[in-house]
Task: structure prediction
Amino acid sequence: MTLENLDALRVGPAQKSLPEGSSELTVRELLDRGLHLSDLTTPVLALTGPAMEANIALLAQYCARHGVALAPHGKTTMAPDLWRQQIEAGAWGVTVANPAQLAVARAAGIARVQLANCLVDPHGIALAQAMTAEGVEVLSWVDDLAAVARLARHLAADGPALDVLVELGAPGGRTGARGIDAAREVAAAVHASPRLRLRGVAGYEGALAHDRSAEGLAAVTAYLEDMRALLVRLAAEGLLDAEEIVLTAGGSAYFDLVVDRFAGVGEEVAASAGELRTTVMLRSGAYIVHDDGFYRGITPLGAATEGGGLVPAMHAWVRVLSRPEPTLALLDGGKRDLSFDEGLPEPQRAMPGFGAASRRLEGARATAMNDQHTFLEIPADDPLAVGDVVRLGLSHPCTALDKWRLIPVIDDAEAADPAVTALLRTYF
Result:
């Protein structure tokens, strides 16, 4: 598989919202016409280019300041063009979740990839080994003895060994060995296998909390301390199989706790295991797009952060289809177009049409969504009319971008009629 030249890609009905009559054009020809959002049909989701650039730079600076690496989770965008921008800004590589995403990373020429999951599919195992043979640095996870045995059984005897991280889990969490002792047993099995190399410890803290309450933060902190203790123990027992080892956690919600709890772990490991060099690696992915919902409320780099925080780079523009009741308006975007799993869309601004002056939608809220409709509760005296354009803020980019194959990138979400500067190809 190779990724097609986007400039040569012909657009068509498979790409939603593009202008009527553009199916004979390539992406480059379409962009050269000078597109604006007013040229597209609603509903349309768009990403703001300058906002994404600012978010990339902000987290790169944060990681550099704290001496940690970043392997952003590519599943958020599944857009190799954005992955490359993140790597150019200093990211170690990218993280993916499954063999299909691993194949996209291979086709995109990504040199370092972490597969943040257990490899159990035989084809996926073969792919990871083939990429390793090609010189790509591939890290995958294991969390029990059965996974270790399956990996060893399916790896080709004449191919290179596969680098793995032992995953520590927690009760009520997701995958991962339940407890330090269980994880140590898995690590020993990896160390004993001639086809595997133990490169460190991995985990995912985001499954343990969903807010920044004292209880949630305490659960995440305790888990991260266990991850650290596991790595130090494995180092002291000589079970790690490389001089450069990895300790990785950190989604887009609690990466500040990861930085805090893992601070100084390299020195602690070196004190017990000599020449080992430790890389603490975050895997935050949603930060590049941010949102107007879940991540806005939970990120450590919020708007109040000194020097400015992450900014939402994802919005949808929809039109009013119907106003059948005084306090109800139906919008032309629904679950097939917009995310809804981490909160309904946030109505922000309205205007009679693109290019006209917009106003804040005071007192409006989304109350429900169908496949192709959003229900908007509005004050009875609000002048919102059929055909008006509404800008929505969205929550959770991971389940918004996956609904779009070619996403307009715009210059300014606050403009009356934003200019489309690029079309971003996704590979969900």
